[in-house]
Design goal:
mainly alpha; about 0% strand
Length: about 120
């Protein structure tokens, strides 16, 4: 019995092949990133295969989005963890130390902005 939909590994290779003109129009550094991005769906081959989408790009894009969403959530969690540590440190500072720290931050920020 024949299959009307190719395996996802084959579909992913076909999709990547379709995007070659776009890839070649990118800078060399962007080409590497583009290739890395197209490797991400391989982490989700099983889910992509089971989704049985007629448009090959849909499961590919969902895989890439899911991967980046998970990375973003990890970054947010790490920032929240650091904020807790910083805020608990500030509670132990004396008023004078807190004032000095605030002045240091303000002085540091002044180097980034043009008034």
């Amino acid at each position: 019995m024949g299959r009307t939909i190719p395996s996802f590994r084959i579909a992913l290779a076909m999709e990547k092949e379709d995007w070659k003109p776009f890839r070649y129009a990118l800078d060399k550094s962007d080409r590497k990133k583009f290739d890395e991005m197209f490797e991400l769906p391989k982490f989700y081959i099983s889910a992509c295969s089971n989704s049985v989408q007629y448009v090959r790009l849909h499961p590919t894009l969902m895989s890439i989005l899911l991967y980046h969403y998970k990375q973003l959530r990890e970054c947010i969690s790490e920032v929240e963890r650091i904020e807790v540590i910083v805020n608990s440190k500030k509670k132990w500072l004396t008023k004078e130390e807190a004032k000095e720290e605030k002045e240091e931050v303000h002085a540091t920020l002044d180097t980034y902005f043009i008034y």
